[in-house]
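[audit] Reproducing an earlier prediction to check determinism. Same input, same settings, fresh worker. If the C-alpha cells differ from the archived copy the diff job will pick it up downstream; this log only records the rerun itself.
[audit] input (96 residues):
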Amino acid sequence: NYVQLKLVGGTGTNGSAIGARITVRAGEISQTREVDGGHGHFGAQDDLTIHVGLGTACEAEVTIRWPDAALTTQTFTVPAGYRYRIKQGHAPELVR
C-alpha cells in the first residue's frame, strides 16, 4: 500500500510547499520526506508529489510541518492506496 501527497502552500508559504516536512506513520513504521525543488544539476528537479510506501498498512497518519515563519503543523489520517492534494490549513482532498 502507499499514499501520494501533493502539497499546496497557503499564506506565508511558497505555492509549491518546497521545504515542507512530511512525517507518515503506518503501524510501527515512521517515514519522513521533504518537498524538494531540485538541485540545479543538469536541470534536474524532484517530483513535487511525495510517494510513501506503507507496506501492509491500510491507513496512515500524516503530519505536515509547513515552511512558513511559524512552522505550523497539520495532522490527519488517510486511507492507503490514494493520491491526496493538501492545501495548507485545509483537509486532504482525494485526487481522482
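[audit] rerun output stored. Observation attached for the diff report: The radius of gyration is 13 Å.
[audit] end
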